[in-house]
């Protein structure tokens, strides 16, 4: 006898049916919802429910949605101290990874100064389903920031469990089909960083430093923290390395040069590259236009960094 549920094969999402059965008027469907965000899973379920209910002989519909576990690579971006350009690097690394074809999410976990809404130029607020946050979309990536959860300019004086709880909510949000999650950590090596690393187990860490000794000493502390927690350090990025005067074109090194590369060799971690101190990077970032989006030399610098980060992830086997 023909299977009455074969009618379902004409649905646009028929390829997701893993099994179907009709017994005593009860239609039971197993449907693969891999890669779908919560809202899309609901749409899929409703589509099958509606179609199956209309089939002669079906009195009740039971649908089980399954999803194969998707591995999401988590890259933590840290620094030993504030103001070295960690958030700028995290935002543009995420944009460059998205430009290279990856599906990317960005978590702004910087409790002390969540700046990603400014860097990405949007003050959109995330929605939530059953207390699970839905990331906001900007410049080809999804992102969530602690800055979206408090009113603008409100200093976050969160400490300990409160900060950790809020950060967990961001990491455990509905990231849908994102393959890579870039996490912009707070600067330093305190308890918030420690518990976030413990909870989210990054696949690798990128450390941002400026070239001068003081910044590098702090960067070394951040590297020690990741190593102690068994998180592979993918490498150091030297930011604000070298300045080309936009008027006369002469190069200078206000913070020194080559310090991070030498330190990386000494500590035994890869050197991922350097970004110049550039008025173009600062002004585009302040205006909410990530410089990695363009096609100038700044964008190229971020594209190269993203490629080296991917290579480093492969080297550490993640
Ligand atoms: N390569 C660069 N050239 C010019 N300006 C830069 C560069 N990198 C960052 N900046 C600027 O430096 C300032 C600090 O950058 P950013 O907020 O990314 O630092 P941070 O390390 O994340 O600081 P914190 O963790 O304290 O928030 C910003 O105004 C940013 O635009």
Automatic annotation (TrEMBL):
Coiled-coil ranges (or none): none
The keyword ATP-binding is assigned to this record: yes
One Pfam assignment: ParA
Keyword Metal-binding among record annotations: yes
Residues annotated for ATP binding in this entry: 80-87
Keywords: ATP-binding, Hydrolase, Iron, Iron-sulfur, Metal-binding, Nucleotide-binding
InterPro entries (alphabetical): Mrp/NBP35_ATP-bd, NUBPL-like, P-loop_NTPase, YlxH/NBP35
Gene3D superfamilies: P-loop containing nucleotide triphosphate hydrolases
The organism's place on the tree of life at top rank: Bacteria
GO molecular-function terms, A-Z: ATP binding
Record CDD domains: Mrp_NBP35 (cd02037)
Biological function: Binds and transfers iron-sulfur (Fe-S) clusters to target apoproteins. Can hydrolyze ATP.
Oligomeric form and interacting partners: Homodimer.
UniProt cross-references to HAMAP family, sorted A to Z: Mrp_NBP35 (MF_02040)
Entry's family note: Belongs to the Mrp/NBP35 ATP-binding proteins family.
The protein's name in its UniProt record: Iron-sulfur cluster carrier protein
Naturally occurring in which organism (per UniProt): Sphingomonas telluris
UniProt lineage: Bacteria, Pseudomonadati, Pseudomonadota, Alphaproteobacteria, Sphingomonadales
